[in-house]
Amino acid sequence: MPGSTETIRVLKGDDLAQILRLLRTSEYGYQRFTLDELPGLLAHYPALGVFNGPSLHSFLLSQTVYPPSAWIAGFCVSWTESKSYQRFMTVLLERMTPLLIARQVRYLHYSGNDIDQDWLRTVLLGLGFLPYRLLYAYDKYDFAVPTRGNQQVIVRPFELRDVPALLAIEAVCFEDLWRYDALAFRDIAATHPYFVVAELDGTVVGYQFNTVDYGSGYLVRIAVHPSVNSRGIGARLMAEAITFFQKAAVGRIMLNTQDDNVHAHRLYEWFGFVRLRHRGFVLRKVL
Predict the structure, then answer these.
(1) For residue 219, which of 163, 255, 272, 273 is within the disulfide window of CB 3.0 to 4.6 Å?
(2) Residues of the chain whose pLDDT is less than 70?
(3) Dihedral, CA atoms, 264, 266, 272, 275, nearest 10 degrees?
(4) What is this structure's pTM?
């Protein structure tokens, strides 16, 4: 239960400044979003904060990507309350659950970058989360490309008219926890500096979006419809992405992928990405 002077309420856009303050000043923070995405999260997805008077002491943000699945998007505790981070997570998660269920969410996920060092993993396991997936992390420190891919493929900026084609690609490429819906694609277009689609013979057959943060490039998603596999479309998208990162002058390019996604591993390693020793992971809780 919250302390006697604490209140819990839904967070809105007016709370943005206090959320940013916590992210800047606390060492107990988890963030699965860029700062450009934060206003959209508050506008579209359940978000809760613990207040002591007018002051925000902790928050829990969600990211409903594709019901029945959602993600923990962010969690933070003020440095003055850092010893109570387990209590804050417990209380906020309890209050968040009915809000997610009301949106037809049945599975809540959490992703971490290092299974051996993650500070929230043990807490979440104690709250009913279970291991669900392992992830590999890859880094690349140069801009070399072994091929430019299929030059018959047209790579162009995403347009809203592409949403139906991208949803069709999502349905055949990813299980529900990784899928994006139409709202998510619109948010991605508004917040990511690089979002392109691949056209072959006038049909959208793939897409990719990336972002840049603190001097590093993040290859967030690359997807190609399986009906056109082995036609150099993934390589074409990857080569264009590396060109984008080179123009952005990033120090390194990073990505994460499922440990069993062997086809993607081959593409990344062909393009000079090196697999890191630490392993990422996904936890799942049934609501």
Answers:
(1) 255
(2) 1-4
(3) 70
(4) 0.92
